[in-house]
Amino acid sequence: MSDANLKTELKTAPVEPLLPIELLLIKTSLGIGVILLIILGVISRAIG
Amino acid sequence: MTDAPELRQRLTEDWLAVLIGLVIFSLALVSLTGSDLLGWIVATSVWSDPAKALGTVSKSYVDLGGPLALVATYVALTAVLSAGAKVLRLPVGKFALAFTAVFWIAYASWFVGSNAYLAVVTPADLKKFGIDWSLKLTNEGGFIVALLVGLVIANAFPRFAEWLKEAIRPELYIKIAIVILGGFIAVAVVGKLNLASSLLLRGLAAIVEAYLIYWAVVYYVARKWFGFSREWSVPLASGISICGVAAAIATGGAIRSRPAVPVLVSSLVVIFAVVEVLILPFVAEHFLSHEPLVAAAWIGLAVKTDGAAVAAGGITESLLLAKNAAEGINYQPGWILGTTATVKVFIDVFIGIWAFILGYIWTNHIDKREEAERAKVGEIWQRFPKFILGFLLTFVIGLLLALTAPTDLAPKVTVAIGEANSLRVLFFLLTFFSIGVLSNFKKLWEDGLAKLAAVYVLSLFGFVIWVGLVISWLFFSGVTPPLVG
Fold first, then answer.
1. Residue B481 maps to a domain
2. ipTM
3. Would the CA dihedral through B308, B309, B311, B316 be positive or negative?
4. Per residue in B350-366, pLDDT tens?
5. By CA distance, what is A20's nearest residue in B?
6. Domain contains B179
7. Which domain holds residue B117?
8. How many domains does one find in chain B?
9. Inter-residue contact B175 to B443 (CB < 8 Å)
Protein backbone atom coordinates (compact mmCIF):
# COMPACT_ATOMS: atom_id res chain seq x y z
CA MET A 1 0.00 0.00 0.00
CA SER A 2 1.43 3.45 -0.89
CA ASP A 3 2.11 6.24 1.59
CA ALA A 4 -0.62 8.33 -0.05
CA ASN A 5 -3.24 5.63 0.55
CA LEU A 6 -2.16 5.23 4.15
CA LYS A 7 -2.49 8.95 4.74
CA THR A 8 -5.98 8.98 3.22
CA GLU A 9 -6.86 6.02 5.41
CA LEU A 10 -5.65 7.90 8.49
CA LYS A 11 -8.12 10.69 7.72
CA THR A 12 -11.10 8.53 6.90
CA ALA A 13 -10.80 5.33 8.96
CA PRO A 14 -13.86 4.56 11.14
CA VAL A 15 -13.35 4.61 14.91
CA GLU A 16 -12.76 1.17 16.48
CA PRO A 17 -14.19 1.06 20.01
CA LEU A 18 -11.82 0.10 22.84
CA LEU A 19 -12.29 -3.59 23.63
CA PRO A 20 -12.39 -4.83 27.22
CA ILE A 21 -9.09 -6.66 26.68
CA GLU A 22 -7.41 -3.43 25.54
CA LEU A 23 -8.65 -1.68 28.67
CA LEU A 24 -7.43 -4.61 30.74
CA LEU A 25 -3.99 -4.34 29.12
CA ILE A 26 -3.84 -0.60 29.83
CA LYS A 27 -5.01 -0.90 33.45
CA THR A 28 -2.82 -3.92 34.21
CA SER A 29 0.26 -2.21 32.72
CA LEU A 30 -0.30 0.94 34.72
CA GLY A 31 -1.05 -0.96 37.92
CA ILE A 32 2.00 -3.23 37.73
CA GLY A 33 4.13 -0.28 36.59
CA VAL A 34 3.24 1.91 39.56
CA ILE A 35 3.75 -0.96 42.05
CA LEU A 36 7.15 -1.87 40.54
CA LEU A 37 8.27 1.76 40.59
CA ILE A 38 7.39 2.00 44.28
CA ILE A 39 9.29 -1.24 45.05
CA LEU A 40 12.33 -0.12 43.03
CA GLY A 41 12.18 3.31 44.68
CA VAL A 42 12.21 1.76 48.15
CA ILE A 43 15.11 -0.56 47.25
CA SER A 44 17.20 2.18 45.68
CA ARG A 45 16.66 4.44 48.73
CA ALA A 46 17.55 1.55 51.02
CA ILE A 47 20.87 0.90 49.29
CA GLY A 48 21.62 4.64 49.22
CA MET B 1 29.19 -25.54 6.03
CA THR B 2 27.17 -22.36 5.60
CA ASP B 3 27.23 -21.04 2.05
CA ALA B 4 27.68 -17.35 1.31
CA PRO B 5 24.08 -16.46 0.35
CA GLU B 6 22.75 -18.10 3.50
CA LEU B 7 25.31 -16.28 5.60
CA ARG B 8 24.28 -13.00 3.99
CA GLN B 9 20.66 -13.69 4.77
CA ARG B 10 21.49 -14.26 8.42
CA LEU B 11 23.81 -11.28 8.74
CA THR B 12 21.37 -8.48 9.37
CA GLU B 13 22.34 -4.87 10.01
CA ASP B 14 22.22 -5.70 13.73
CA TRP B 15 24.77 -8.50 13.49
CA LEU B 16 26.88 -6.47 11.08
CA ALA B 17 27.09 -3.71 13.70
CA VAL B 18 28.22 -6.29 16.28
CA LEU B 19 30.86 -7.62 13.89
CA ILE B 20 32.29 -4.22 12.93
CA GLY B 21 32.20 -2.98 16.52
CA LEU B 22 34.02 -6.07 17.78
CA VAL B 23 36.63 -5.88 15.03
CA ILE B 24 37.39 -2.26 15.96
CA PHE B 25 37.48 -3.15 19.67
CA SER B 26 39.80 -6.11 19.01
CA LEU B 27 42.16 -4.06 16.84
CA ALA B 28 42.37 -1.51 19.64
CA LEU B 29 43.26 -4.21 22.17
CA VAL B 30 46.15 -5.43 20.00
CA SER B 31 48.02 -2.34 21.20
CA LEU B 32 48.37 -4.12 24.58
CA THR B 33 50.90 -6.37 22.86
CA GLY B 34 52.92 -3.37 21.72
CA SER B 35 51.54 -3.03 18.17
CA ASP B 36 49.42 0.11 17.85
CA LEU B 37 46.99 -0.68 15.01
CA LEU B 38 44.56 2.25 15.43
CA GLY B 39 46.82 5.11 16.45
CA TRP B 40 46.68 6.62 12.97
CA ILE B 41 43.01 7.61 13.30
CA VAL B 42 42.43 11.33 12.92
CA ALA B 43 41.95 13.46 16.05
CA THR B 44 40.56 16.98 15.94
CA SER B 45 41.50 19.57 18.54
CA VAL B 46 39.69 22.81 19.30
CA TRP B 47 41.29 25.33 16.98
CA SER B 48 41.67 28.97 16.13
CA ASP B 49 44.35 28.20 13.54
CA PRO B 50 42.95 25.53 11.16
CA ALA B 51 46.45 24.28 10.36
CA LYS B 52 46.80 23.07 13.94
CA ALA B 53 43.43 21.34 14.21
CA LEU B 54 44.18 17.89 12.88
CA GLY B 55 46.41 15.23 14.38
CA THR B 56 46.50 11.51 15.15
CA VAL B 57 44.99 9.83 18.21
CA SER B 58 48.36 8.27 19.10
CA LYS B 59 51.70 10.05 19.31
CA SER B 60 53.36 7.02 17.74
CA TYR B 61 51.82 8.08 14.41
CA VAL B 62 52.49 11.81 14.76
CA ASP B 63 54.77 11.77 11.68
CA LEU B 64 51.77 10.84 9.54
CA GLY B 65 50.31 14.32 10.05
CA GLY B 66 46.65 15.32 10.52
CA PRO B 67 45.53 15.61 6.86
CA LEU B 68 46.93 12.19 5.94
CA ALA B 69 45.39 10.70 9.10
CA LEU B 70 42.04 12.11 7.97
CA VAL B 71 42.40 10.54 4.52
CA ALA B 72 43.49 7.23 6.07
CA THR B 73 40.46 7.31 8.40
CA TYR B 74 38.16 7.98 5.45
CA VAL B 75 39.70 5.16 3.38
CA ALA B 76 39.48 2.67 6.26
CA LEU B 77 35.87 3.51 7.13
CA THR B 78 34.82 3.45 3.48
CA ALA B 79 36.46 0.05 2.97
CA VAL B 80 34.95 -1.52 6.10
CA LEU B 81 31.46 -0.11 5.58
CA SER B 82 31.47 -0.90 1.85
CA ALA B 83 32.32 -4.50 2.71
CA GLY B 84 29.38 -4.35 5.14
CA ALA B 85 27.18 -2.97 2.37
CA LYS B 86 28.17 -5.92 0.18
CA VAL B 87 27.19 -8.34 2.94
CA LEU B 88 23.84 -6.56 3.24
CA ARG B 89 23.45 -6.84 -0.54
CA LEU B 90 23.42 -3.09 -1.08
CA PRO B 91 24.85 -1.64 -4.30
CA VAL B 92 28.45 -1.25 -3.14
CA GLY B 93 29.49 1.37 -5.70
CA LYS B 94 26.53 3.62 -4.90
CA PHE B 95 27.11 3.11 -1.19
CA ALA B 96 30.80 4.02 -1.40
CA LEU B 97 30.05 7.15 -3.43
CA ALA B 98 27.27 8.27 -1.11
CA PHE B 99 29.36 7.42 1.97
CA THR B 100 32.20 9.54 0.60
CA ALA B 101 29.86 12.55 0.54
CA VAL B 102 28.42 11.67 3.95
CA PHE B 103 31.86 11.29 5.54
CA TRP B 104 33.32 14.53 4.21
CA ILE B 105 30.25 16.65 4.93
CA ALA B 106 29.97 15.17 8.42
CA TYR B 107 33.66 15.64 9.12
CA ALA B 108 33.58 19.22 7.80
CA SER B 109 30.75 19.84 10.28
CA TRP B 110 32.87 18.37 13.08
CA PHE B 111 35.80 20.55 12.01
CA VAL B 112 33.63 23.68 12.07
CA GLY B 113 32.20 22.62 15.44
CA SER B 114 35.72 22.41 16.85
CA ASN B 115 36.39 26.07 16.09
CA ALA B 116 37.27 27.97 19.27
CA TYR B 117 34.40 30.44 18.83
CA LEU B 118 31.95 27.53 18.98
CA ALA B 119 33.69 25.10 21.32
CA VAL B 120 35.68 26.89 24.01
CA VAL B 121 34.06 26.81 27.45
CA THR B 122 36.37 28.06 30.19
CA PRO B 123 37.80 31.59 30.65
CA ALA B 124 41.30 30.03 30.64
CA ASP B 125 40.69 28.57 27.19
CA LEU B 126 39.22 31.86 25.92
CA LYS B 127 42.51 33.47 26.93
CA LYS B 128 44.54 30.61 25.44
CA PHE B 129 42.88 31.03 22.04
CA GLY B 130 42.95 34.85 22.24
CA ILE B 131 39.18 35.26 21.86
CA ASP B 132 36.67 37.11 24.05
CA TRP B 133 33.49 35.13 23.43
CA SER B 134 32.34 31.62 22.50
CA LEU B 135 29.09 29.74 22.05
CA LYS B 136 30.44 27.25 24.65
CA LEU B 137 29.13 24.22 22.75
CA THR B 138 32.27 22.20 23.69
CA ASN B 139 34.15 20.34 20.95
CA GLU B 140 31.15 18.02 20.62
CA GLY B 141 29.17 20.97 19.26
CA GLY B 142 30.26 19.48 15.94
CA PHE B 143 27.46 16.94 16.41
CA ILE B 144 24.93 19.79 16.43
CA VAL B 145 26.54 21.34 13.34
CA ALA B 146 26.35 17.97 11.54
CA LEU B 147 22.70 17.57 12.52
CA LEU B 148 21.86 21.08 11.28
CA VAL B 149 23.71 20.55 7.99
CA GLY B 150 21.80 17.28 7.55
CA LEU B 151 18.53 19.10 8.21
CA VAL B 152 19.36 21.75 5.62
CA ILE B 153 20.09 19.04 3.05
CA ALA B 154 16.87 17.16 3.87
CA ASN B 155 14.66 20.20 3.68
CA ALA B 156 16.34 22.41 1.07
CA PHE B 157 18.03 19.85 -1.18
CA PRO B 158 15.75 16.79 -1.15
CA ARG B 159 17.21 15.41 -4.42
CA PHE B 160 20.69 15.42 -2.92
CA ALA B 161 19.29 13.81 0.24
CA GLU B 162 17.77 11.10 -1.96
CA TRP B 163 21.14 10.56 -3.68
CA LEU B 164 22.80 10.11 -0.29
CA LYS B 165 20.26 7.61 0.98
CA GLU B 166 22.37 4.44 0.49
CA ALA B 167 24.80 5.72 3.13
CA ILE B 168 22.22 7.34 5.40
CA ARG B 169 22.10 4.55 7.97
CA PRO B 170 21.86 6.06 11.45
CA GLU B 171 20.81 2.77 13.03
CA LEU B 172 23.90 0.95 11.71
CA TYR B 173 26.27 3.74 12.74
CA ILE B 174 24.87 4.10 16.26
CA LYS B 175 24.80 0.35 16.85
CA ILE B 176 28.50 0.11 15.94
CA ALA B 177 29.14 3.06 18.24
CA ILE B 178 27.21 1.42 21.10
CA VAL B 179 29.19 -1.82 20.74
CA ILE B 180 32.43 0.18 21.07
CA LEU B 181 30.92 2.23 23.89
CA GLY B 182 30.59 -0.90 26.08
CA GLY B 183 34.37 -1.10 26.51
CA PHE B 184 34.67 2.64 27.12
CA ILE B 185 32.04 2.54 29.87
CA ALA B 186 33.79 -0.47 31.47
CA VAL B 187 37.04 1.46 31.76
CA ALA B 188 35.17 4.48 33.13
CA VAL B 189 33.39 2.55 35.90
CA VAL B 190 36.24 0.33 37.04
CA GLY B 191 37.16 1.21 40.61
CA LYS B 192 33.65 2.52 41.21
CA LEU B 193 31.71 -0.70 40.81
CA ASN B 194 29.42 -0.02 43.78
CA LEU B 195 28.25 3.22 42.20
CA ALA B 196 27.91 1.50 38.82
CA SER B 197 25.77 -1.33 40.22
CA SER B 198 23.63 1.18 42.11
CA LEU B 199 23.05 3.00 38.81
CA LEU B 200 22.13 -0.28 37.11
CA LEU B 201 19.46 -0.92 39.74
CA ARG B 202 18.08 2.59 39.29
CA GLY B 203 18.12 2.01 35.54
CA LEU B 204 15.55 -0.76 35.99
CA ALA B 205 13.01 1.96 36.73
CA ALA B 206 13.43 3.13 33.13
CA ILE B 207 12.22 -0.22 31.81
CA VAL B 208 9.13 -0.14 33.99
CA GLU B 209 8.43 3.44 33.03
CA ALA B 210 8.81 2.99 29.26
CA TYR B 211 6.86 -0.25 28.88
CA LEU B 212 4.26 -0.17 31.61
CA ILE B 213 3.55 3.53 32.16
CA TYR B 214 4.33 5.40 28.93
CA TRP B 215 3.02 2.73 26.56
CA ALA B 216 -0.31 2.31 28.32
CA VAL B 217 -0.99 6.05 28.48
CA VAL B 218 0.07 6.80 24.91
CA TYR B 219 -1.91 3.86 23.56
CA TYR B 220 -4.99 5.09 25.43
CA VAL B 221 -4.50 8.65 24.14
CA ALA B 222 -4.11 7.44 20.55
CA ARG B 223 -7.13 5.14 20.72
CA LYS B 224 -9.56 7.09 22.87
CA TRP B 225 -8.76 10.77 22.26
CA PHE B 226 -7.57 10.63 18.66
CA GLY B 227 -9.60 7.66 17.41
CA PHE B 228 -6.71 5.79 15.79
CA SER B 229 -7.22 2.13 14.92
CA ARG B 230 -5.36 -0.57 16.86
CA GLU B 231 -3.07 -1.18 13.89
CA TRP B 232 -1.84 2.43 14.03
CA SER B 233 -1.97 2.90 17.80
CA VAL B 234 0.38 0.01 18.69
CA PRO B 235 3.41 1.15 16.65
CA LEU B 236 2.66 4.76 17.51
CA ALA B 237 2.57 4.05 21.27
CA SER B 238 5.73 1.95 20.97
CA GLY B 239 7.55 4.60 18.94
CA ILE B 240 6.74 7.36 21.42
CA SER B 241 7.17 5.29 24.59
CA ILE B 242 9.87 2.72 24.13
CA CYS B 243 12.62 3.14 21.66
CA GLY B 244 11.48 4.80 18.51
CA VAL B 245 12.01 3.09 15.22
CA ALA B 246 13.03 -0.37 16.49
CA ALA B 247 10.07 -0.65 18.86
CA ALA B 248 7.53 0.65 16.32
CA ILE B 249 8.67 -1.91 13.76
CA ALA B 250 8.96 -4.81 16.25
CA THR B 251 5.54 -4.31 17.82
CA GLY B 252 3.91 -3.48 14.48
CA GLY B 253 5.22 -6.79 13.16
CA ALA B 254 4.09 -8.61 16.29
CA ILE B 255 0.45 -7.56 15.91
CA ARG B 256 0.67 -8.38 12.18
CA SER B 257 0.13 -4.79 11.02
CA ARG B 258 0.89 -3.94 7.41
CA PRO B 259 4.66 -3.25 7.11
CA ALA B 260 4.10 0.28 5.78
CA VAL B 261 2.32 1.37 8.98
CA PRO B 262 5.28 1.21 11.43
CA VAL B 263 7.57 2.54 8.72
CA LEU B 264 5.41 5.66 8.36
CA VAL B 265 5.28 6.02 12.15
CA SER B 266 9.08 5.67 12.25
CA SER B 267 9.54 8.64 9.93
CA LEU B 268 7.76 10.76 12.52
CA VAL B 269 9.82 9.30 15.36
CA VAL B 270 13.04 10.43 13.70
CA ILE B 271 11.76 13.96 13.09
CA PHE B 272 10.73 14.42 16.71
CA ALA B 273 13.98 12.87 17.93
CA VAL B 274 15.82 15.62 16.04
CA VAL B 275 13.75 18.30 17.78
CA GLU B 276 14.57 16.72 21.14
CA VAL B 277 18.30 16.45 20.40
CA LEU B 278 18.41 20.12 19.50
CA ILE B 279 16.58 21.21 22.67
CA LEU B 280 16.87 18.78 25.60
CA PRO B 281 20.67 18.71 26.16
CA PHE B 282 20.64 22.49 26.49
CA VAL B 283 17.61 22.40 28.81
CA ALA B 284 19.49 19.81 30.89
CA GLU B 285 22.58 22.01 30.94
CA HIS B 286 20.52 24.97 32.16
CA PHE B 287 18.37 23.27 34.79
CA LEU B 288 20.12 20.03 35.74
CA SER B 289 23.83 20.87 35.71
CA HIS B 290 24.12 19.98 39.42
CA GLU B 291 22.26 16.71 38.93
CA PRO B 292 24.20 15.28 35.98
CA LEU B 293 22.91 11.72 36.32
CA VAL B 294 19.29 12.89 36.55
CA ALA B 295 19.96 14.70 33.27
CA ALA B 296 21.57 11.57 31.79
CA ALA B 297 18.67 9.28 32.71
CA TRP B 298 16.14 11.86 31.57
CA ILE B 299 17.77 12.12 28.14
CA GLY B 300 17.75 8.31 27.85
CA LEU B 301 14.07 8.18 28.72
CA ALA B 302 12.87 11.18 26.75
CA VAL B 303 14.77 11.06 23.46
CA LYS B 304 13.50 8.33 21.17
CA THR B 305 15.59 6.12 18.86
CA ASP B 306 18.92 4.72 20.04
CA GLY B 307 20.91 6.99 17.79
CA ALA B 308 19.38 10.25 18.90
CA ALA B 309 19.26 9.29 22.59
CA VAL B 310 22.83 8.07 22.97
CA ALA B 311 24.12 10.88 20.80
CA ALA B 312 22.15 13.41 22.89
CA GLY B 313 23.72 11.77 25.95
CA GLY B 314 27.13 12.56 24.46
CA ILE B 315 26.26 16.22 23.97
CA THR B 316 24.73 16.43 27.44
CA GLU B 317 27.89 14.95 28.96
CA SER B 318 30.08 17.49 27.19
CA LEU B 319 27.88 20.42 28.18
CA LEU B 320 27.53 19.34 31.82
CA LEU B 321 31.20 18.45 32.28
CA ALA B 322 32.20 21.82 30.84
CA LYS B 323 29.70 23.80 32.92
CA ASN B 324 30.71 22.05 36.12
CA ALA B 325 34.40 22.38 35.27
CA ALA B 326 33.89 26.13 34.93
CA GLU B 327 32.59 26.06 38.53
CA GLY B 328 35.57 24.03 39.71
CA ILE B 329 33.78 20.66 39.81
CA ASN B 330 35.57 18.13 37.60
CA TYR B 331 33.48 15.01 37.09
CA GLN B 332 35.02 11.94 35.46
CA PRO B 333 33.97 11.61 31.82
CA GLY B 334 31.96 8.59 30.71
CA TRP B 335 29.44 8.42 33.55
CA ILE B 336 26.78 10.70 32.07
CA LEU B 337 26.99 9.16 28.61
CA GLY B 338 27.22 5.72 30.23
CA THR B 339 24.04 6.29 32.22
CA THR B 340 22.11 7.45 29.14
CA ALA B 341 23.37 4.48 27.11
CA THR B 342 22.58 2.02 29.92
CA VAL B 343 19.03 3.34 30.27
CA LYS B 344 18.57 2.99 26.52
CA VAL B 345 20.11 -0.49 26.35
CA PHE B 346 17.99 -1.66 29.32
CA ILE B 347 14.88 -0.48 27.50
CA ASP B 348 16.00 -2.14 24.24
CA VAL B 349 16.51 -5.51 25.92
CA PHE B 350 12.79 -5.91 26.49
CA ILE B 351 11.56 -4.92 23.03
CA GLY B 352 11.30 -8.57 21.97
CA ILE B 353 9.41 -9.58 25.11
CA TRP B 354 6.98 -6.68 24.87
CA ALA B 355 6.39 -7.38 21.18
CA PHE B 356 5.67 -11.02 22.05
CA ILE B 357 3.18 -10.05 24.79
CA LEU B 358 1.34 -7.75 22.39
CA GLY B 359 1.55 -10.33 19.60
CA TYR B 360 0.12 -13.00 21.89
CA ILE B 361 -2.81 -10.80 22.97
CA TRP B 362 -3.53 -9.65 19.41
CA THR B 363 -3.28 -12.99 17.60
CA ASN B 364 -5.21 -14.88 20.30
CA HIS B 365 -7.81 -12.39 21.47
CA ILE B 366 -8.16 -9.27 19.33
CA ASP B 367 -7.38 -10.24 15.77
CA LYS B 368 -7.67 -14.01 16.13
CA ARG B 369 -5.44 -15.99 13.77
CA GLU B 370 -4.95 -19.58 12.74
CA GLU B 371 -2.55 -21.54 14.94
CA ALA B 372 0.32 -21.18 12.45
CA GLU B 373 -0.02 -17.39 12.38
CA ARG B 374 -0.16 -16.88 16.15
CA ALA B 375 2.70 -15.27 18.08
CA LYS B 376 5.42 -17.73 19.10
CA VAL B 377 8.03 -17.54 21.86
CA GLY B 378 10.78 -17.77 19.22
CA GLU B 379 9.84 -14.26 18.10
CA ILE B 380 11.38 -12.88 21.30
CA TRP B 381 14.85 -13.82 20.10
CA GLN B 382 14.02 -12.90 16.53
CA ARG B 383 13.16 -9.34 17.61
CA PHE B 384 15.92 -9.02 20.20
CA PRO B 385 18.30 -6.17 19.24
CA LYS B 386 21.50 -8.18 18.73
CA PHE B 387 23.88 -5.23 19.00
CA ILE B 388 23.21 -5.31 22.75
CA LEU B 389 25.20 -8.56 22.85
CA GLY B 390 28.16 -6.71 21.34
CA PHE B 391 27.78 -3.93 23.91
CA LEU B 392 27.74 -6.47 26.76
CA LEU B 393 30.73 -8.34 25.35
CA THR B 394 32.96 -5.27 25.04
CA PHE B 395 31.81 -4.13 28.49
CA VAL B 396 32.71 -7.46 30.11
CA ILE B 397 36.06 -7.77 28.27
CA GLY B 398 36.94 -4.14 29.07
CA LEU B 399 36.02 -4.63 32.73
CA LEU B 400 37.95 -7.89 33.09
CA LEU B 401 41.02 -6.38 31.45
CA ALA B 402 40.87 -3.25 33.59
CA LEU B 403 40.36 -5.26 36.80
CA THR B 404 42.96 -7.94 36.19
CA ALA B 405 45.69 -6.13 34.26
CA PRO B 406 49.03 -5.79 36.08
CA THR B 407 49.84 -2.27 37.28
CA ASP B 408 52.12 -1.52 34.32
CA LEU B 409 49.52 -2.69 31.78
CA ALA B 410 46.41 -1.00 33.29
CA PRO B 411 47.05 2.47 31.76
CA LYS B 412 47.54 0.81 28.36
CA VAL B 413 44.04 -0.71 28.58
CA THR B 414 42.60 2.78 28.99
CA VAL B 415 44.68 4.09 26.07
CA ALA B 416 43.73 1.15 23.83
CA ILE B 417 40.02 1.52 24.47
CA GLY B 418 40.41 5.28 24.06
CA GLU B 419 41.64 4.68 20.50
CA ALA B 420 38.54 2.61 19.72
CA ASN B 421 36.51 5.37 21.35
CA SER B 422 37.83 7.91 18.85
CA LEU B 423 36.12 5.86 16.14
CA ARG B 424 33.00 5.72 18.32
CA VAL B 425 32.94 9.53 18.16
CA LEU B 426 33.12 9.37 14.35
CA PHE B 427 30.21 6.91 14.25
CA PHE B 428 28.24 9.28 16.52
CA LEU B 429 29.01 12.04 14.01
CA LEU B 430 27.77 9.94 11.08
CA THR B 431 24.63 9.19 13.12
CA PHE B 432 23.88 12.86 13.77
CA PHE B 433 24.34 13.80 10.13
CA SER B 434 22.23 10.84 8.95
CA ILE B 435 19.39 11.64 11.35
CA GLY B 436 19.37 15.21 10.01
CA VAL B 437 19.22 14.02 6.39
CA LEU B 438 16.26 11.75 7.23
CA SER B 439 14.26 14.58 8.78
CA ASN B 440 12.11 16.25 6.20
CA PHE B 441 9.86 18.54 8.25
CA LYS B 442 7.47 19.02 5.32
CA LYS B 443 6.10 15.58 6.19
CA LEU B 444 4.57 17.02 9.34
CA TRP B 445 2.18 19.17 7.34
CA GLU B 446 1.04 16.41 5.04
CA ASP B 447 -2.56 15.26 5.29
CA GLY B 448 -3.03 12.42 7.72
CA LEU B 449 0.41 12.67 9.26
CA ALA B 450 -0.57 15.87 11.06
CA LYS B 451 -2.93 13.84 13.25
CA LEU B 452 -0.18 11.33 14.05
CA ALA B 453 2.13 14.24 14.81
CA ALA B 454 -0.51 15.70 17.15
CA VAL B 455 -0.53 12.50 19.23
CA TYR B 456 3.24 12.63 19.28
CA VAL B 457 3.40 16.27 20.39
CA LEU B 458 0.75 15.81 23.07
CA SER B 459 2.28 12.60 24.44
CA LEU B 460 5.92 13.59 24.22
CA PHE B 461 5.80 17.17 25.40
CA GLY B 462 2.73 16.84 27.62
CA PHE B 463 3.57 13.59 29.35
CA VAL B 464 6.68 11.56 28.44
CA ILE B 465 9.21 14.33 29.06
CA TRP B 466 7.71 15.39 32.40
CA VAL B 467 7.10 11.94 33.82
CA GLY B 468 10.61 10.97 32.68
CA LEU B 469 11.99 13.98 34.53
CA VAL B 470 10.10 13.14 37.74
CA ILE B 471 11.14 9.47 37.69
CA SER B 472 14.75 10.33 36.82
CA TRP B 473 14.77 12.81 39.71
CA LEU B 474 13.30 10.29 42.14
CA PHE B 475 15.83 7.60 41.22
CA PHE B 476 18.99 9.52 40.34
CA SER B 477 18.95 12.76 42.36
CA GLY B 478 21.82 13.08 44.79
CA VAL B 479 23.89 10.51 42.87
CA THR B 480 26.79 12.16 41.06
CA PRO B 481 29.67 10.87 38.94
CA PRO B 482 33.03 10.44 40.72
CA LEU B 483 35.37 13.41 40.64
CA VAL B 484 38.57 13.37 38.61
CA GLY B 485 41.51 12.28 40.74
1. no
2. 0.92
3. positive
4. 888 999 999 999 999 99
5. B366
6. yes
7. 4-476
8. 1
9. no
